[in-house]
Amino acid sequence: MMSIARAAAQWRDYYEICKPRVVALILFTALVGMFLSTENWIPFRAWFWGLLGIGLAASAGAALNHWVDEEIDARMQRTRERPLPRGRIHGRQAVAFALILAALSMAVLLLFVNALTAALTFASMVGYAVIYSMFLKRSTPQNIVLGGAAGAAPPVLGWSAVHGEVHGEALLLFLIIFVWTPPHFWALAIKRVDDYARVNVPMLPVAYGVALTKLHILLYSILLVVVTVVPFLVLMSGVIYLAGALALGAGFVYYAARLYRADGDQYAMKTFGYSIFYLSALFAFLLLDHYARVFLRAFVLD
After folding, report:
1. Is 131 exposed, middle or buried (0-12, 13-18, 19+ CB in 10 A)?
2. For 271-286, how does the pLDDT look when each residue is reduced to its tens digit (9 = 90+)?
3. Could you read off the pLDDT of 10-21 as tens digits, one per residue?
4. How many angstroms separate the CA atoms of 256 and 137, rounded?
5. Which residue from 40, 84, 41, 44 is spatially nearest to 62, judged by alpha carbons?
6. Backbone CA torsion sign across 18, 20, 21, 27
7. Are 127 and 150 in contact (CB under 8 A)?
């Protein structure tokens, strides 16, 4: 009985190092990319195997990130209870687990989806687990800006899983997440600035101060509103999406402005929390608008 309980506890630790909540958001944005790529139903081969392969790769990248960050995680309040710093999983076990997931991901995507999606997924995984985690994170205050390209890739991966090519509209979805990432993460970095300073990670608030970081968050939130209007301007989306994007964008700017004007960090986590809701809701509006227009063309205009 004890061995069963111990095994279950260890598998929960392996599950934790996959960062399941992050992976869930990645899979959601990838799925939206799939749906937006066509007016027809997505083939089972594309959505099932595509999401499985993308999810396995994202989990592998997360596990490698836990291994790379083990030393600094042990010294940060937010992360010191993670499985590796607590010794519940050893570094070599995390690496072996990540490599198995990565190999399974590539096998699934190459065998059941297409080579382009496999190549883009592999590049995204390496971009996060190696380029960002090992180098950018520790070398530049613009780490999250430059490294954000890996996290912005899922809609492109979803699109390519269906069509085997990358379309300009998929790149626009990439751009939205790319611009969203810095203000999203910087809000958390403000709250955890002492943690990052303790481990000498040059996040923007550590390198240039909290005040400048707040200004950057506000400016990026305004830029995000501008970028999210583009799908409407290029006729990718309609008025349902536009209304949702403007309302959600106004909320983001509101939180960013409150954070900017506040003396302390009391709005940092509120801004961070809203940013997660914002991205999920924005992509939900993209889906709603897409299928509303499909319905209109199929059953009203015809």
Report:
1. middle
2. 999 999 999 999 999 9
3. 889 999 999 999
4. 24
5. 84
6. positive
7. yes
